[in-house]
Amino acid sequence: MGKRRGAWELARGLSKRQRKHLRQFGEQHPVCDRALRLFGAVEVRSDNSDKSSAESDSETEVEQVSVYHKLLATLKASSESESEEEEDESESEEAGEGEAELSGEGSQEPEEADGGEEDQNDVPGQKEGKDPPEQTLGQEQADGEDTCGDPSHGAAEEFTDVKHEAEFSLETNFMEEESGDCDAGKREKDSSRAFSEDPLRQHMDKELEEKEVEKISTLSKTSSQMKWPRLGQLTFSSTLEKHTTLKPDKEFDVKQLHLHKPLESTWPKVNKHFVSSVSKPSDPSFTPLQRELFCIMNTYRDLFYPEQNALTNGEEIRHAYCLHALNHVLKANTQVLSNNAKKRDQKPGTDSDDYRDQGLTRPKVLMIVPFRECALRIVHIFINLLEVNDKRKIDVSNKKRFKGEFGSDPEEKPPNLKRPEDYEAVFAGNIDDHFRIGVAILQKSMRLYAPFYSSDIIIASPLGMRTIIGAEGEKKRDFDFLSSIEMLIIDQADIYLMQNWEHVLHLMKHINLLPLDSHGVDFSRVRMLNLNNWSRYYRQTLLFSALQDPQINAVFNKHCFNYMGQVAVRNVPLSGSISRVVVQLPHVFRRIEAENVTSVIDARFQFFIDKVLPEYRDAIMSHTLIYVPSYFDYVRLRNYFKKEELNFAHICEYTKKAGVCRARRFFLKGDKQFLLLTERFHFYKRYTIKGIRNLIFYELPTYSHFYSEICNMMKATDSGVDATWTCTVLYSKYDAQKLAAVVGIDRTAQMLQSKKNVHLFVTGEN
């Protein structure tokens, strides 16, 4: 009781949003230095009626307890017992890991013991997911509605926004009402003449044959290479024989891009900031990067761009894909409203297939972003693109509520700590990673918090989609709204590797499936491609990332079936991040031999304990930092070190602040010979670890610049013994992409051909 009372006393100093996050999820986000898991021992009930996620009136029945909830209750009970018996740390830790390995995938996030270390029930199968346990499917609200951020609402009710339903309905509105001027008929005639050249109409009106669909599903793609001025080396791939290589347009007029009329005038104004930053702009509307990206987007090919940078081109790219997505929605809605007017005026009894202009459900665009701040910026771009001038402001429903829930609270700003610029750019604003919101758009108005089945665009995080999609056997799950997605945009995909990549894979498995319910659709207006369950072959996927990773590549290659083909940027790094190491340090790259990708994990562990670790057991090799990218490997090494009774400390993303400070202090003073450090901790914290004399990269880092950052931490050591500094890196032939990003493509080719260890010496002047 004293421990729980003390937790409530500490919670008084937190803001309302922080207290709500603690109450719902049992912890704060690991990026916050004040993260305290205060409510870990509080019992969680599936029929929770306090300030949690809102439930719709039609879903008030008690949810059946799933296997996930049983596992959650077991782990919670174990956590309570640990607070009473902390002296049994190692035994309970190993028992918890063994139990969770049998239980399969879960998203239980460990709590921590009073000693500052992470919970003794840490489980590799659970830890790789970064999701707190209270984000269970049973607490999810329907149709993507988030509860109000004010916890004083008590048992919150679902926000439905009923009064705007008719105003934003595509079925009951007409072109004249939406346009609101006398030139609507003339514009309709002009647009009908341009339909034959419109990329959207060309893409969606293409009628595939069954043989072509079978070919796309079964045969491998043929590819060709081309170099563009700004994007660099591109790989065009397609399964269909009629594959034409796209060439960049040196110059093009905005009017030739088939943009919806309001966007032709608003886009140059919205994008003026980026164009003005170009030294000699050849285009008044697009930067060179935007021009080439939009040239590919506008052909409705899939696109993978792995050179996104939050500091330099992140916002520039976001504006480009927002323009493409909004243009797609406006043109699609205009076609529906125009056909509504035609059907209204046609003679009774006549029937025609000319009005098939919809999918099985209304949502057309799905935008996956990592944080609420990203969603906030996207909505602001949409608003700016729809506002023709200052006098003609767009009507945005629920804008105040949106700013309150997606904006950042000045009181929640982290301490004024020195962090790298890229860290500040990634974690700017509201960094909550559990959200989803529906957006309905007509030409003059926008509706935020629209129910998913009344939305044109859905903006969500992977976790937000995972909790509403649910898992097989869950009672409250829904993914019918994903059945007719025509454009999927995955932004900052590399960050999901630091969150939970399984959520992305789960989403890809449930997109473009036939819905289980009709949801009131007029089947006479549904396209044949949707009725044939061919939506996936027409869906355009835009994938943006800061790096090339096998898991990201697998999504692009195995889950994208666009009949138009794919375009991937495949530039190779020439120098690598090792050139940014400023300390004089010998780098030894030791190659691991493995038969296949699955066996390399065990091969790396065995190589480490047999060949590498014995060299560092001597007391003279003190102050050794072991950098471990995967949490699975971290738990395995930690258990082995405890079994061998080695003198070590360990820090992961779940370690309490007190435990982190204690481990850093022991390591600096030499009281602990080894320090295990996870990549996720470095990603979310970016602390400088002082006292490093020997550095071991158990695996090459996911982000190449982490290599130079970790190496440069050695310059913070004031002992003056730099002559004894060492750096050892373990790699295999399956780490070619990561290796090239660190040492460059030329050295990578030599290292993969040779089976000997490679010794590199960086002088600090490279």
From TrEMBL:
Region feature Disordered, mapped onto this chain: 43-224, 338-357
InterPro entries in alphabetical order: P-loop_NTPase (IPR027417), UTP25 (IPR010678), UTP25_C (IPR053939), UTP25_NTPase-like (IPR053940)
Biased composition (Acidic residues): 81-121
Localization (cell): Nucleus, Nucleolus
Residue intervals of the UTP25 NTP hydrolase-like domain: 300-567
Biological processes annotated in GO: maturation of SSU-rRNA from tricistronic rRNA transcript (SSU-rRNA, 5.8S rRNA, LSU-rRNA)
A GO term, aspect molecular function: U3 snoRNA binding
Residue ranges occupied by any UTP25 C-terminal domain in the UniProt entry: 577-761
Function: Component of the ribosomal small subunit processome for the biogenesis of ribosomes, functions in pre-ribosomal RNA (pre-rRNA) processing. Essential for embryonic development in part through the regulation of p53 pathway. Controls the expansion growth of digestive organs and liver. Also involved in the sympathetic neuronal development. Mediates, with CAPN3, the proteasome-independent degradation of p53/TP53.
Protein name as annotated: U3 small nucleolar RNA-associated protein 25 homolog
Organism: Penelope pileata
